[in-house]
Amino acid sequence: MTDTTETDEGDELNETHSPDDESTDKRLVSGWHGRYYEDFQVGDIYKHPFGRTVTETDNVWMTNVTMNLNPMHFNEAYAAETEFGERLVDGTFVIALAVGMSVIDISVNATANLGYDNIRHHAPVFHGDTIYAESEVLSKRELESRDHVGIVETELRAYNQDGEHVLTLERTPMVLKREHAEPSAATPPGWLEGIGTQPEEL
């Protein structure tokens, strides 16, 4: 289609538009809804998106909020005299961070976390370290008592920016089956029905 438009000088300017330019159709498009029980396969490894740099604020906040009184986390003068030469990041923060990073791939659709097992800190984490995480599916099984979920056992591994392995743990979420979740673009995980743009409005 060709539009003819008058310019300020009175000259005619021809503009050619593709058919796509005229389209006013809108549609709801599904984003990532997380994995359902059926999506997990034993042996699969998911490298979770984004690294996260640990700050001093993270460490001080976690230490204070949980009343962790070990001076290694909040006393710089004390920590400077230890073998590490500086404060260490609270290990429970490293655990929480790695687990949180794994949620997008492992437990967006979990109804419960049944356990955290075999937690091992392999190396210290310091202020300014960037943490990356990945999970491996170890096992999965159906439940006789609940037909809407299944149990998935995973191993979570965290690394720093130098590729050093800093944390391993196993966690076992109970994950919804797809047919019971009824995912849709209009009501993704965490949204209440009827909130935001609805299909009938388009």
How are the SSEs placed, and which strands pair?
Blueprint: E1 2-6, E2 12-16, H1 19-22, E3 45-47, E4 52-53, H2 56-65, H3 76-80, H4 91-106, E5 110-121, E6 130-142, E7 149-159, E8 165-176, H5 178-181
Antiparallel strand pairs: 1-2, 3-6, 4-6, 5-8, 6-7, 7-8
Organism: Natronorubrum texcoconense
Protein name: Acyl dehydratase
GO molecular function, one term: lyase activity
Structure description:
The protein is built from five helices and eight strands. By secondary structure, it is α+β, with helices and mostly antiparallel strands. The chain has a single domain (27-185), classed as Thiol Ester Dehydrase, Chain A (Roll). Strands 3, 4, 5, 6, 7 and 8 form a six-stranded antiparallel beta sheet that branches. A two-stranded antiparallel ribbon has the order 1-2.
Main attributes?
alpha+beta, Thiol Ester Dehydrase, Chain A, 8 strands, 31% strand, two-stranded antiparallel ribbon, 202 residues
Mean model confidence by pLDDT: 90
Helix percentage = 10-25%
| H and E string | EEHEEHHHEEEEH
Low-confidence stretches: 1-16
Largest sheet: 6 strands, antiparallel
Identify the overall geometry.
globular
User: In angstroms, what is the radius of gyration?
Assistant: 25 Å
CATH homologous superfamily identity: Hotdog Thioesterase
